[in-house]
């Protein structure tokens, strides 16, 4: 394997000179730089990024902590983040917090090891323990969360309220549904709280009553969509439409409808939130709220790199970026009025 020592031997210069040349140090003459770079290319030299980070006390590695790296939603976020970091010569290190079960320990670990130059973190909310960890970090970070608990930090988030509000209004005013159920995300998740509030507000404004058993808690997984969907579809006075707080739970509702022998949208209509890639290929294609997931990842990465390059103090006024949503009307709903 090619090393700095081998390059130095072949170029007949010191190891220190090779190191300076590879880091574009102005103290090294142009002729020497060209010679060293030519030899490095011939030897197919690959720098040890980790060692360089420790030596320079800087890093071009961006950490991205997500609850689940296999979920399609998070795959689209990763794509957006990585596209921007690559353009700016940063590497993306994706780290799973295992559905938030190990969020605090994972965060503490990555902040201790000194590998990261910056961090993007998807969080359900900011509790006291997480707030304490973030207050001690020395590297720039950006959060992806839509809730009030993240008001003191730089945040990129989807406009959860407007998206859920617009969808509920569409179901009522355009389609004519009056019996609307909602499968929420986890009760401790800020995004889920905002979406259910928007749903309730829109129903109230349109004089649509919501029976207590029409709101069921899920956890943003397909499995919880199946369970909650089965529960709602088994009610004696079942809803006309189910608004799942994300597309993965909407997929679970499709599974439940199939198990119950119900036709979508004739027997039960289903809508979601996110517009993940697979939603357009369901049978029937899913009506949903497009959350511009990849764009959210891009904006988070752009904001973080801006902070890193400008060395913005953590005490500066936090920046808030909201990603606009739009309705994507497909065939899982119908006009009934």
UniProtKB/TrEMBL annotation:
Keywords: DNA-binding, Transcription, Transcription regulation. InterPro entries: HTH_LacI, LacI/GalR-like_sensor, Lambda_DNA-bd_dom_sf, Peripla_BP_I. This is LacI family transcriptional regulator. The keyword Cell inner membrane does not apply. It holds the Pfam family Peripla_BP_3. It comes from the Bacteria. GO terms for molecular function: DNA-binding transcription factor activity; transcription cis-regulatory region binding. It comes from Ignavibacterium album. The keyword Cytoplasm does not apply. Residues 2-56 form the HTH lacI-type domain.
């Amino acid at each position: 394997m090619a090393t700095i020592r081998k390059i130095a031997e072949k170029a007949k210069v010191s190891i220190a000179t090779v190191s300076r040349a590879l880091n574009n140090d102005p103290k090294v003459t142009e002729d020497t730089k060209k010679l060293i770079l030519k030899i490095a290319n011939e030897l197919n030299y690959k720098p040890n990024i980790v060692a360089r980070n420790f030596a320079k006390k800087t890093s071009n590695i961006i950490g991205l902590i997500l609850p689940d790296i296999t979920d399609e939603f998070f795959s689209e976020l990763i794509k957006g983040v990585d596209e921007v970091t690559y353009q700016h010569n940063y590497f993306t290190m994706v780290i799973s917090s295992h559905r938030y079960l190990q969020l605090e320990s994972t965060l503490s670990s990555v902040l201790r090891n000194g590998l990261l130059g910056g961090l993007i973190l998807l969080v359900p909310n900011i509790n006291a323990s997480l707030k304490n960890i973030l207050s001690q970090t020395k590297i720039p970070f950006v959060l992806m969360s839509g809730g009030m608990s993240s008001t003191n930090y730089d945040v990129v988030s989807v406009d959860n309220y407007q998206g859920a509000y617009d969808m509920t209004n569409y179901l009522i005013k355009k389609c004519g549904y009056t019996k609307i159920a909602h499968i929420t995300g986890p009760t401790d998740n800020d995004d889920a709280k905002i979406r259910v509030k928007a749903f309730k507000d829109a129903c109230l404004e349109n004089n649509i009553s919501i029976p207590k058993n029409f709101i069921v808690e899920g956890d943003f997984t397909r499995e919880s969509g199946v369970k909650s969907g089965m529960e709602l579809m088994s009610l004696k006075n079942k809803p006309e439409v189910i608004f799942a707080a994300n597309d993965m739970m909407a997929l679970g509702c499709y599974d439940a409808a199939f198990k119950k022998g119900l036709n979508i949208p004739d027997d039960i209509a289903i809508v979601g939130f996110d517009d993940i890639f697979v939603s357009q290929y369901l049978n029937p294609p899913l009506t949903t709220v497009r959350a511009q997931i990849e764009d959210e990842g891009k904006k988070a990465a752009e904001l973080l790199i801006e902070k890193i390059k400008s060395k913005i103090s953590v005490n500066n006024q936090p920046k808030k970026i909201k990603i606009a949503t739009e309705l994507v009307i497909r065939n899982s709903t119908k006009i009934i009025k």
